[in-house]
Write a structure and sequence with these properties.
6-stranded parallel β-sheet, Rossmann fold, Dehydroquinate synthase-like, alpha domain, 341 residues, 2 domains, globular, 11% strand, alpha/beta
C-alpha cells in the first residue's frame, strides 16, 4: 500500500459576509504578528479596505503588496511577515502561495473570483507550468464578493471544473496502460463534483445561491482532491496540457484558462468516447466558449496546440498519447466535436 501523507486546510469558510470573519479566522488558526496581503489596486479600492480594517482590529500588522497585471517569479521575494493572504483572482492567489512557500510561512486564500481551482490547491501557475507551492492553511470565500466579480470569471471556473471529467478519465487510462498510481477516492471527488456542477449550470448562470455554492465548493474540494492524490492528476489532464500549449503557441491570446480547458475537454472527451455533447450543452447554458472562434484562437493554432499538447508534460500519459494525436488526427477530432469552425 502506498504511504499517504496529506496536507489539508485547517479551516474553510464559504458564504455570505464571510469576509467579516477574516480576523477571527486568523486568530483561530493561531496566526500572529504581521501579514503580507497580496492584491491589486482595484480590488484594494473596491473591497479590500474593509478587510484591512478587520485585520487591524484583531491586532495584526498589515503590509500590502500591490501586484502588476503580469506576475513573474521575479516578483516573488522573501518576505518578513508571519503569514500571507492572497486577496484577489487566481494569479494573486498563486503569487501569495509561492511567496509563502519561499518564506516558509502559512498562507490564507481569500479569492475575489472563482475562475479556476487554484484557490484551494497546493500548486501555482505564474508563468506557463504549474509548480508545487503550499496548501492554504485557511480558505475564506465570500459569496457576496464572488457575485460582484465579472461573470466571465465565474463561467471560466465552471469550465475548469467541467474539465475534471477528462482529467480523471486520463488518469484512469494511465493507470490501466502504464500502471501509474491512482487514488480512486480523489478521482471520485472530482468526477462527482464535475457532474454536480453540470447539473447546476442553469442555477450558476442565474447566479443563484445554491448554484454558486455548488461551484465554489467543487473548486475548493478539487484542490483537496489534488492534495489527497499527491499530484494535480485528478484536476489536470490532456485538456490542461492543451491550454498550456495554446499559451506557448499563441501568447497574445485573450481566452481564459478555464475557457481553454473546457474547450480542450470537449475534444478530449470525444477522443475518450465520452458523452461530449453533454459538456457542450452545459457550456452553452453557462455562456462559455465551445469553439475556436469563441475562444478567438485561429483554427490552425488550435489544431497545432492539440497535436503538441502531449509534449507539454512527457511524464503525463493521456488520451493524446494513447491515440498518438498528430495534426491530422487533431483536425479530425476538432471538426467532429465542433470545436473548429
Amino acid at each position: 500500500m502506498k504511504l499517504l501523507e496529506v496536507d489539508l486546510p485547517r479551516k474553510i469558510i464559504i458564504g455570505s459576509k464571510a469576509i467579516e470573519k477574516i480576523g477571527s479566522l486568523c486568530k483561530e488558526l493561531d496566526l500572529k504578528g504581521s501579514v503580507a496581503i497580496f492584491t491589486e489596486d482595484n480590488i484594494l479600492k473596491n473591497v479590500g479596505k474593509e478587510t484591512l480594517e478587520i485585520l487591524k482590529s484583531h491586532d495584526y500588522s498589515v503590509n500590502v503588496r500591490l501586484l502588476p497585471k503580469k506576475i513573474e517569479m521575479k516578483h516573488i521575494t522573501n518576505i518578513r511577515s508571519n503569514f500571507t493572504i492572497g486577496f484577489g483572482g487566481g494569479r494573486i492567489i498563486d503569487a501569495a502561495k509561492m511567496a509563502a512557500k519561499k518564506s516558509n510561512i502559512p498562507f490564507i486564500s481569500v479569492p475575489t473570483a472563482i475562475s479556476h481551482d487554484g484557490i484551494a490547491s497546493n500548486r501555482a501557475v505564474l508563468e506557463i507550468y504549474s509548480a508545487p507551492a503550499v496548501m492554504p492553511t485557511g480558505i475564506l470565500v465570500d459569496s457576496d464578493i464572488i457575485i460582484k466579480s465579472p461573470y466571465r470569471l465565474t463561467a471560466s471556473g465552471f469550465g475548469d471544473m467541467v474539465s475534471k471529467l477528462t482529467a480523471v478519465e486520463d488518469w484512469e487510462l494511465s493507470h490501466q496502460e502504464t500502471g501509474e498510481y491512482i487514488s480512486e477516492y480523489a478521482a471520485t471527488i472530482n468526477r462527482t463534483a464535475a457532474d454536480l456542477v453540470i447539473r447546476s449550470a442553469s442555477s450558476i448562470k442565474n447566479l443563484e445561491k445554491k448554484g454558486l455554492e455548488n461551484l465554489i465548493e467543487a473548486l475548493v474540494f478539487s484542490g483537496i482532491a489534488m492534495a489527497i492524490a499527491g499530484s494535480s492528476r485528478p484536476a489536470s489532464g490532456s485538456e490542461h496540457m492543451f491550454s498550456h500549449a495554446l499559451k506557448e503557441l499563441y501568447p497574445q491570446k485573450t481566452s481564459l484558462h478555464g475557457e481553454e480547458c473546457a474547450v480542450g475537454s470537449i475534444i478530449c472527451s470525444y477522443l475518450h468516447n465520452m458523452d461530449w455533447p453533454r459538456i457542450v450543452e452545459a457550456l452553452k447554458v453557462i455562456g462559455a466558449p465551445t469553439n475556436n472562434e469563441e475562444l478567438k484562437i485561429p483554427r490552425k493554432i488550435l489544431i497545432k496546440a492539440l497535436s503538441e499538447a502531449k509534449n507539454i508534460r512527457k511524464d503525463r500519459y493521456t488520451i493524446l498519447n494513447y491515440k498518438d494525436i498528430d495534426e491530422k488526427k487533431a483536425e479530425i477530432a476538432a471538426k467532429e466535436s465542433g470545436v473548429i469552425k
